[in-house]
Design goal:
single chain; mainly alpha; 3-stranded antiparallel beta sheet; two-stranded antiparallel ribbon; 12 helices; globular; disordered N terminus
């Protein structure tokens, strides 16, 4: 079965002008992910990774096996120098394709996952956050930046907010179907409510609180990312923040202000407390406030 029916090549991924129809294999994989209630972003990522794998060999995955998978993993690591996160998604996508959709009875240790890396995220100080907000390219960008920092919402959650999600009576914002297909509530600060009301009077959004182009669609995550990059350059920040940096800053600043770790977990929507506890390594109140043993030694600083 060809992966995609097209006039000049085979591909698993996104449509190109010569594509005539979606292949049976691609549709089966989409159906398998839909039945398991995979998030749309996960489905897109898996399809994209399998597409790249098929393009590398210019063959349908049905005609490829463990040796080709091994060759492709070596290519990702040695030639493409792909990030560990990218390689991990590729492993998950290929395991799903061959184990679930194609029902191959291989020992799936043949598709090993790369060892994970631990990297500390960029953390903006409150002063740097203020400079970033003030340097936003437009008022709409200023409002969505403020919403992400004021609530800890992920960029994908912020762009999918609707006016009905703002509960000014209970001073809460409803995050509907966030990461992991979970609903949660976050706090609505008086300052953010005032800003949102000013934004509403000026923009009058209909379907989405932060509409994109066309207005029937929400603002894209890429557009927010580009705006954050532009704002950081205008603000003269030496750090290179992303939209997720505002969520990190929210968590760390709450922690430094003395907020309970369990409460931060609920606000961020983390499944495990250990995920939230990673912010302890970033909070100055727990790291920099610790007295160094050097300062406890009973001798003065030597002046040469």
């Amino acid at each position: 079965i060809p992966l995609l029916a097209m006039s000049n090549t085979t591909s698993f991924g996104y449509p190109i002008p010569t594509v005539r129809k979606v292949s049976a294999l691609r549709q089966r994989m989409i159906d398998d992910m839909t039945v398991r209630n995979f998030a749309p972003n996960t489905q897109v990522s898996y399809l994209h990774q399998v597409n790249l794998f098929a393009r590398y060999f210019d063959k349908s995955p049905e005609r490829l096996g463990p040796e080709e998978i091994r060759t492709y993993q070596i290519y990702l690591a040695r030639e493409r120098h792909a990030a560990v996160g990218t390689r991990s998604v590729a492993v998950s996508a290929l395991r799903f394709l061959y184990k679930v959709t194609l029902k191959r009875d291989w020992p799936f240790e043949l598709i090993p996952a790369p060892k994970s890396e631990t990297r500390l995220p960029v953390i903006l100080s409150p002063e740097e956050v203020l400079r970033l907000l003030q340097a936003a390219p437009s008022f709409s960008h200023h409002v969505i930046f403020s919403t992400m920092y004021g609530t800890g919402a992920r960029v994908s959650e912020a762009v999918h907010l609707r006016a009905a999600d703002i509960d000014s009576q209970r001073m809460m914002i409803r995050i509907e179907q966030g990461k992991g297909r979970k609903d949660r509530y976050v706090q609505l600060s008086p300052k953010l409510l005032e800003l949102l009301r000013s934004y509403w009077r000026q923009v009058r959004p209909r379907d989405w609180l932060f509409p994109g182009q066309p207005s029937s669609e929400p603002l894209s995550r890429d557009a927010v990312g580009q705006a954050v990059t532009h704002a950081s350059e205008r603000a003269g920040l030496k750090k290179r923040p992303s939209p997720h940096s505002l969520r990190h800053a929210y968590a760390v600043h709450l922690l430094e202000a003395g907020t309970d770790l369990r409460r931060i977990q609920l606000l961020l929507g983390h499944r495990s407390l250990s995920t939230t506890a990673r912010y302890l390594r970033l909070a100055t109140s727990t790291v920099c406030a610790t007295t160094s043993p050097l300062d406890l030694l009973p001798y003065p600083v030597i002046d040469p």
